[in-house]
Amino acid sequence: MRVEPGEVVVIYETLPVGAVTGEFTIAKVVFGGTELAGLERSKRRAEAAAEYLAGARAATALKVSSPRRYRRKRRLADVGLSRAPQSYCWLDR
User: Is 78 in a helix, a strand, or coil?
Assistant: First the structure.
């Protein structure tokens, strides 16, 4: 996956929500490995990230800016999708 700072990420929440609920802008993309867990601000989150990244050969972290939760949930069709993606997909905006 190649993303660039300035791109907008649309957030889809799986069931039971089953809706597009917000978006954010990518401020920075950081490439690395297990050391990316050190980017977390709290000890608990850093430990959880380290466990998640254990054994990874490569990892990518996105620094989030301008997070926005939509006032009303949107259907997948509202963003041009007929079904939920497996993990991510590119949207024409």
Answer: helix
pLDDT, one tens digit per residue, over 26-50 is 999 999 988 899 889 899 999 999 9
Q: In angstroms, how far is the first alpha carbon of the chain from the final one?
A: 18
Take residue 43 and report the two structure tokens written for it: 């000890």
- CA-angle at 33, arms to 31 and 12, nearest 5°: 65
Pick from 69, 61, 76: which is nearest to 26 by CA?
A: 61
Q: Enumerate the H helices of the chain as residue ranges.
A: 43-53
91 and 76 in contact (C-beta within 8 Å)? no
Question: Residues 6 or more apart from 1 whose CB is under 8 A from it?
Answer: 60, 88
CA 72, 1, 14, 41 dihedral sign is negative
pTM of the model: 0.83
For the cut 90, the answer to whether the pLDDT of residue 70 exceeds it is yes
